[in-house]
Design brief:
- Helices cover about 40% and strands about 15% of the residues.
- The longest helix is centred in the N-terminal third of the chain and has 20 residues.
- The N and C termini lie far apart (about 65 Å).
Length: about 260
């Protein structure tokens, strides 16, 4: 058994004891047992090998602390990744986009972030989420959606935004409690050379699970088109996506849309 196979808590216990002078060389199973480590005999063998190579107690303490930090980092960063697809032949080995989306909405306890470019029939796509939002006061739902000027359309910015807001509440959201909706104002510029669109598509739930996909929140993308993505559970990716969009909102790069009353 190598040092990396011992528990992080055991390694920290030994590192602290070395730093405080409560543990000295040579290492014995009896001495380590007093620290209540899980396998004192095996650990004493590994530590004595290191002292034979010239490691001093202070060096060992630093070394063991670093191994423990890396082990804990791996545990925190542990994740599962599954392929998610939409298409005419979804094999059993792959997850279906519509099924994954509904599962994510059902799992949400604290927060849901939805990012999409094209939105169509959101009242159908988001029905279960809207119901959850109405019945769960602590749930925070945020959508980052694209509002873009088409071609050489000369409609005033405020009119384009107001029209999108009315359509969202009239056609794309069925719940009574409203989510927070954000958009990229660069999509409204008349200058086609600098105009930008919010093109990302993802869903993040509770900072723990993330669907990153080519599929927009539309029935066609979730049920018929050929789409592909991955659902990531655990690890740092869901948190990083949430932090990225939170920073865009905080910096004003994404602006909140004022939604009208029904």
């Amino acid at each position: 058994m190598g040092l990396g196979e011992h528990g992080a808590d055991d390694l920290v216990q030994v590192a602290d004891a070395l730093s405080q002078g409560r543990l000295t060389t040579p290492f014995t199973a009896v001495g380590l047992a007093r620290l209540e480590v899980s396998d004192p005999q095996a650990l004493s063998t590994e530590l004595n090998k290191l002292t034979d190579k010239g490691f001093q107690p202070a060096q060992l303490a630093i070394f063991l602390g670093e191994i423990a930090r890396q082990r804990r980092s791996l545990l925190v960063g542990a994740q599962t990744v599954e392929l998610v697809v939409t298409g005419p032949d979804v094999r059993e080995a792959y997850r279906d986009t519509a099924v994954v989306v509904e599962q994510l909405f059902a799992e949400a306890q604290a927060s849901v972030l939805i990012v999409g470019f094209a939105l169509f029939k959101g009242d159908v796509i988001f029905r279960s989420l809207a119901e959850r939002l109405d019945t769960t006061p602590s749930l925070d739902v945020r959508l980052c959606l694209d509002i873009s000027r088409r071609g050489t359309d000369t409609t005033r910015d405020q009119d384009l935004v107001a029209r999108f807001a009315r359509e969202f509440m009239g056609k794309n959201w069925s719940g009574q409690r409203r989510p927070k909706v954000y958009f990229d104002p660069r999509g409204l510029t008349m200058d086609t050379k600098t105009r930008a669109v919010l093109h990302a598509k993802c869903i993040v739930v509770d900072n723990k699970s993330a669907l990153i996909t080519s599929a927009n929140p539309t029935p066609a993308a979730y049920d018929r088109n050929i789409e592909i993505g991955v659902v990531v559970r655990g690890g740092l990716i869901p948190q990083q996506i949430m932090s990225h969009f939170a920073s865009l909102i905080e910096a004003g790069d994404l602006r909140e849309l004022t939604l009208p009353d029904r």
